[in-house]
Amino acid sequence: MADQNHSVSPVRDGMLTYCYLLLYIALSSGQIFFNKWVLSSKEINFPYPLGLTLLHMIFSSVLCFVLTKVLKILKVEEGMTLEIYTTSVIPIGAMFAMTLWLGNTAYLYISVAFAQMLKAVMPVAVFILGVAAGLEVMSMRMLLIMSVISFGVLVASYGEININWIGVVYQMGGVVGEALRLIFMEIFVRKKGLKLNPISMMYYNLDSLCSALCLLVPWIFLEKPKMDAQGTWNFQPLVLTLNSMCTFALNLSVFLVIQHTSALTIRVAGVVKDWVVVLLSAILFADTKLTLINIFGYAIAIGGVAAYNNFKLKKEATRAASSDNSSSSSPIPTASSSTKASS
């Protein structure tokens, strides 16, 4: 009987993991379509991406506070200091806000499918910034992978029928913002010496008060005058509340997947999600016209992304193995070594 329960447990865990992955893909794809629907002048007609992003940040901050401080459903690890918060969490929050703001703004100018194709260049931006920050090392293999991704995105862009360069600039700005956020997160984990579980990382990522403050000032100057002039304060509260809840649920699903699998799995699932979004957007939105050149170029770019993920997987596995070997071979820490670690 014990053997039977033992055999059932891995199957149940595997099914639970696949459910989390499907939930992430569904929520991520649905949120992209939901944002496009809200921002579109032909649908909800709330063409204020900065205001929409600000609403998401405020909603996440309030909900995170309730879950962690009031209801205490989520437990947050201690160890966060003012110095770490100001030098790491605030920059991460600022880049997170910028990414969502610029990415949502791009939907006003380009199709959802083309926006997803441009996002494929993300590993290139992350790698270049990682090399500049000393986190990555330039090599011929990585240079080849980056070239393949860039070539694929260029081909996909060449095949775009209704290309709008304003939308391209906004989307690439969002890509740079996301790349900077990932770089800051790696510095946060690797160099600050603070080890947080996924729930704690979710708290500091979703407790988006600093992100909201970063968005508040530009919103006051850029969008609030337009909303006042056009009298669009009478927006649909139910729709925007549901949209904000979906955003929070999406970020929560990301951390659930990472907690039960790995960061690489979320990258692979992200590739699947991107293809789902590209294909479904051609069905759902009239402004999306896919061409064979689009699909061919995007397939090349995704091939490069897959090679990048595989390279990162091997690198992380090698790093983990060397860390385990060093920890198993090292004796009990001396006073000097423990002092160095704590500093």
Protein model, in words:
This protein is mainly α and 343 residues long. Helix content is 79%, strand content 0%. It is built from 14 helices and no strands. Helix 5 crosses helix 7. The radius of gyration is 22 Å and the shape is globular.
Spell out the helices and strands N to C. Answer: HHHHHHHHHHHHHH
Class based on secondary structure composition and strand pairing: mainly alpha
Residue-averaged pLDDT, rounded? Answer: 80
Radius of gyration: 22 Å
Which keywords apply here?
single chain, 343 residues, mainly alpha, globular
Put the structure in a nutshell:
With 343 residues, the protein is mainly alpha-helical. The C terminus is likely disordered.
